[in-house]
Structure formats: structure tokens, C-alpha cells
Amino acid sequence: MHSKHHTLAGLIAGLTAASIWGGMYVVSKVVLEVIPPFSLLVSRLVLGALTLGIVIYFRNRNAETKTSVTKEFFWSSFLVGFVGYGVSLGFQFVGTKLSTASNGALVTSATPAFILLFAPFLLGERATPRRIIALVISTLGVLAVIDPRSAELSPSLFWGNMSLIAAALTWALYSVLVRKVSKSADLLTSSAIMFLGGLPSSIAFGIWEINTQGIGEITVGIIGGILFLGVISTAIAMFLWNYAFAELPAAVASLTFFAQPVVGALLGWFFLAETITPLFLAGGVLIGVGILIATRE
Q: CB–CB of 145/265 below 8 Å?
């Protein structure tokens, strides 16, 4: 059993990652007007791998024992990265393009429930009554925050909505597989290799995008945006997310994901003068209560 210190560190890591992602939409929106999604993903994954690679290099230089990368370790991490960054983020881009932002927020909030489904089969972690209650309470909180009444279910959005569901399912699978891999591997090295796993499909789609859509004008602001998305939203946030799943039971770590819509809405209120409703505040409280219940086990 992990100590309270590990539980707290894992919780803070997961909440920080989700908060960074909740705040990256504003930057993404600006950068995506100039650079197509898969081309941007390639730059994010390359920057992410380089950032963690530099950290690993300096850590190994100062360490007495260096991290060895076996063939099995490399390929297991690479394939987990392919599921998360190659498949899941690909579905997310397609879904966001073919559906609506509100549908995206609603479907993505199902990720922790999908994690609860995968964890017993892949990790042998039981879905205890306490964890199920925590998930239900937190999910109700998210529904209050994002207000499902704004969702659209018209037939024209069907394939977009299906892609978003596939994105949520595969991200849940990725998150559970991270916990499985991290039990026998160095997390920092594994996370860097995972970024490489997302590159083959992203490069292929990126080349197609550039040939069909081209790239807009690259300004200093856009370069800053790419660096933020690559270093902060990818290298740091993805590592923190992986760390949360390495330290906490998957069902508990998954609940930190719910910080994402809360932070997104708060930033919308702060920067874009969007209104905060009493329903939003109640939702935020419910999410917090759910996380507390899950961590008290």
C-alpha cells in the first residue's frame, strides 16, 4: 500500500496535468488557425520527447546507475504511446472537427468511467463500491459544469461523436496501460519513448495535411504557442499524468481528469468574461467530494 505522501503526490500530479490541459484550449485554438492538427501534434511529440530526453541525459550523467532500455521495454512503451498519442489523439482531432466543442467536453468526461471498465481486466484492480460512488458523484459534478443540454445529437454529427467516443475509450486504455508498464519500468524513460510511439501515424497524417491545406504564417507568437504546447502541455503534463497513474489506483487517478473542464470554464470566465453559474459551482464541489471519497479508501 502506498503511503499518504505517494497518494498526495499522485493526486497533485494528476490534477496539475488536467489543469494544464484545461488551460491549453485557448493556445491550441490560436495555433491551429495556422498549423493543422496532426502537423501540430508532430511538433508537440518531438518537443515532448526532446524535453524528457534532455532531463534523462542530465539525470543519467549525475547518477551512479544509468537506466538501461531493453528491447521489450522499448516496444511496450512505444505501443502504449501509439495507443495514446497515435490513435486516441487522432480520434480526438477528427471528432473535434466533425462534431462540436460541447459534445467533445461531454464525451471526454466519460474517460474515467471507461478506465474503471479496463482496470479490472488489465490491472486486476477491483471496482470497489467506494470507487463507483466516487465516480458517480464526480461525473454528476462534471455534468453540472459542462451542462449536457448544450450537446447536439443531430445525424450530421454522428461520425464526429463516434470518433470522440473512440478517443475517450482509447485514452482510458492508454492510461491503464501506463500503470501496467510503469510497474516494471523507469517512468521518465518510458514516457519519452511513448511520445515516439505517436509519431508514425501523426507524421503520415501531417504530411497529407500540409499537402492539402498548407501552413499559415509562422509568427513569434505562434512559435511561443508551439513551445508551450510541446514543453508544458505535452512533456510536463503528460509525464505528470503518467506519474499519477503510476502512483495511484487507476480508478482514483482517473478522477483527477475532471479538473480539466473546471479549469477550462474558470479561464473562460477570467479571460473571456464568460459567466460562472451556481450550477458550475455546485459541480466543482461535487467533483472535489468524489475525489476525496476515492482517496479515503
A: yes
Is the Cα torsion angle 234, 235, 240, 245 positive or negative in sign?
positive
Q: What whole-number percentage of the chain has pLDDT above 90?
A: 40
Q: Give CA–CA dist 147/279, Å, rounded.
A: 8
Cell of 277: 453559474
The three cell numbers locating residue 272: 473571456
DSSP single-letter state for residue 67: P
- SS3 labels along 148-190: HHHCCCCHHHHHHHHHHHHHHHHHHHHHHHHHHHHCCCCHHHH
pTM assigned to the model = 0.87
Q: Which residue type does 177 have?
A: L
CB 88 within 8 A of CB 163: no
pLDDT-derived band at 297, boundaries 50, 70, 90: low
